[in-house]
Amino acid sequence: MTERGFHPFAVLHFLRKTILLYLLPLLQVLFARNWAALRTALVQGATLLTVLAAVSAAVLYAGRWRVDAQGTLRVRWRLGVRLDRCLKASQLAALTIERPLLYRLAGASRVVLYPAGHKRTLTLLLSAQNAQFLADRMMPRRDAVAHTPRGGEKLAFAVLGANGLSTLALLALAIKQSRPYAPDAQTAAFAHLNRIAAWAARWLPMGTAWLLVLGGVLFCASLVRSAAHAAHYTVWRTESHLGSRGGFVRRYEMRLALEHLSYADLRRSPATWALGCCPVFVTAGSCQPEIPLLVWREDGPFLQELLPGFVLPPKAPVDTAGRSIPAFFLPAGIPCGLCLLLTAVSRYTLPALTVPLLVVTAVFAALLVGAYNGWRKEGIWLQNGRLTLRWQHGFHLHDICVLCPVPALTAMQSPWAAAVHRTNLTLTFPGGVKCKVRSVKCSELPFLLF
């Protein structure tokens, strides 16, 4: 197999990190207005840049890679020190290809390889053709069963991918104005942004008006970004791996090895209950994708086609007798109490800050509601031979189905938890990814040999 070179962008990060070496002396003499020293610094900076560019060119020339027909990748660096790395396709947990706008203009792609069971990844800067060639050799896409979201499912994908506290506030408006395609949701959000700003400026203090307008702007930016991710989105499954591809401005592709999947994470939030569907994230090795694999309705069968044997934790609330209240409520309760105290003080000292502080207090109060939801529902169970767990993180309730063999478990008990026979469980998956379930009853875990 012929060896191939890397894209010139492979050395840009090296030059970017060294830019301070020749810019700082220039800034010092420029502020001192010493023009003779400035000319000397310019010559020194140009010389240093030339040397670094020559070293970068030598590194780029000395670096080679090749992949054989069996999917074994060999990367070779030989510049003073010989450094070779080998990775077999069977050892690969996940592979991602990212093509931001600048990379697309230059014909480059960033390929990130995630070895199974390791935190350390391998990043390669290749041309677009070489990146696709490498992906097809390491994780070939043959006889794939593909699915492309349409209509309301695409709208749900865009809305659920938009992160921000204002998502729920503009969700009803986005659904009402859209029929039912994602770009309409963007248009509706932007069209009503001016109305929000005008209403806030007329009826609310200046600080609160800015908070609401900032929330609306952040939501719209997040919604546009999420809708761009949802453009041209396709998810598929073969006998050996899962994959997805999409993006409008920032193109991306993800492939996950089925035999190295760690868990599937179904994230519930107020927006998911309003839409009646949930985003599903799948983790393999140390790869935790930012983009959901798909948006799933509970009456839809497609998730079972992608992940056979996927089960959810039971819906019934858990037994909360003896459950640790501080573990759940202190992280949001302390800042909420502090904001309430500041609001009470500002009522008599700085009345103009009272309403903005109430807005911040409302945010922490919402986090307290989420903590209460986790206090009632967090737990770990064995369902149909699968280990399942549920834990609350901020506004999201994570329903997790473990797809790998039982991960490493760490139990931690304080004297108070031991007195009520409860423990905190930390599950460590291959690749170092961790999930924590708080205040679990030991008597409910016979399958974990408690």
From TrEMBL:
Keywords, in A-Z order: Membrane, Transmembrane, Transmembrane helix
Bilayer-crossing regions: 20-36, 42-63, 155-175, 203-224, 325-346, 352-372
Protein name, entry field: PH domain-containing protein
